[in-house]
Structures are given as structure tokens and as C-alpha cells.
TrEMBL record:
Mg(2+) binds at E40, D69. This is dITP/XTP pyrophosphatase. The lineage of its organism: Bacteria, Bacillati, Bacillota, Clostridia, Eubacteriales. Substrate binds at T7, Q8, N9, K10, G11, K12, S70, F152, G153, Y154, D155, K175, H180, R181. GO terms for molecular function: dITP diphosphatase activity; ITP diphosphatase activity; metal ion binding; nucleotide binding; ribonucleoside triphosphate phosphatase activity; XTP diphosphatase activity. Belongs to the HAM1 NTPase family. Its cofactor is Mg(2+). Homodimer. Pyrophosphatase that catalyzes the hydrolysis of nucleoside triphosphates to their monophosphate derivatives, with a high preference for the non-canonical purine nucleotides XTP (xanthosine triphosphate), dITP (deoxyinosine triphosphate) and ITP. Seems to function as a house-cleaning enzyme that removes non-canonical purine nucleotides from the nucleotide pool, thus preventing their incorporation into DNA/RNA and avoiding chromosomal lesions. Binds 1 Mg(2+) ion per subunit.
Amino acid sequence: MKIILATQNKGKIRELQELLVDEEIEVLSLQDIKDWEDVEENGKTFADNASLKAKAAVKKTGLIALADDSGLEVDALDGAPGVYSARFAGEPKDDERNNNKLLQLLETVPDDQRQARFRCALVVATPKGEEFLTEGTVEGQILTQRRGTDGFGYDPLFFVPEYARTMAELTLAEKNKLSHRAQAFRKAIPILQALKIKG
């Protein structure tokens, strides 16, 4: 069975391929599609945006498609930056400016009120119009200064209590094991297995 993962992110593609290595499921990506036009992610939730991308990939290829959307939710900011995580400080997207804005907004917030989570919504869409949603979350808190050099986005500010390190201080293997996206991908495997059996 062939499926399409609606991304050009090589890390995501590799992650899903590794999870499906024993499933006889071939993972294609947007890199394999000619004339792909990026979908405007104007949904109100991560699930909305994932659905928009997955349905567009089904329409373009006729294959079962997976798409994810994810970001950071900070309790003290009423769930912001949320769906605006990548462009929190405006366009063009810039991790450094996003992190600076986050630190600025949380400047007066005490340590015990800096809870946050990374959330991922993953949608599996089929040519028959079916949609399945899986989610993953990682709980943590936002530090007052960056730590670590691995990772990207808000990773240097996101402290994971169970590892006593930030996301940017974890090894790739550790991050892939606990990440919100890895959780959502793992939950999608039984859905793909069932679709494969159904044909």
C-alpha cells in the first residue's frame, strides 16, 4: 500500500518510514508530487489545519494521506501561540524572534505558572472521504532563558520535567520517543493497518 505524507520535512518523512518499516506500507511525500501548491493553513485548530493539508494531498494524488499540524500552547497566555506558533512574531517565520517574543510576554510570570505543552494533531484522510484524527502532547514548562543547541523552534525554552532537560538538550532518539508528533504517528499505525486490510 502506498500513502502520502503531506510534508517536505525530511525528518518527519524518515520518522514515519521508520515506524512503518514492518508494515509493507510505502511512504511518499510532497517531494514526490509535481506542481504541489502549498495549502493555506487558516484553520482555527491544529486538527483543522491538518485536515486541510491531508484532504488536499488526497485530491492531488488519490492516495490515503497523512498530515500533521503542531505547536506550543502556554497556559499563562491562554493557549497562545497555538496555531500561530511558527509565525508568532510575524512573517517571515523566525525561531529567534518567536522565542524572544515568548520570553518577553512571560517576563513577569513566576516559575510555577509557566506550564506549557507541545501539541500535535495528525489527520489520516482517504479517497473515500473518511477522516481519522490522532493527537499527541508533551507537557512541560517555559524557562526564562534558552538551554541546549539541538532541536528547533521553541525547544531551547521548553523544559521536560521527566528528563530534567529542555527539548534542545535531548538526543534525537530521546526526542523521537517522547515527542508529540511521534505519539500521534504511533497512534495512526493501527488506523493504517485497518485501511490496508480493507483495501
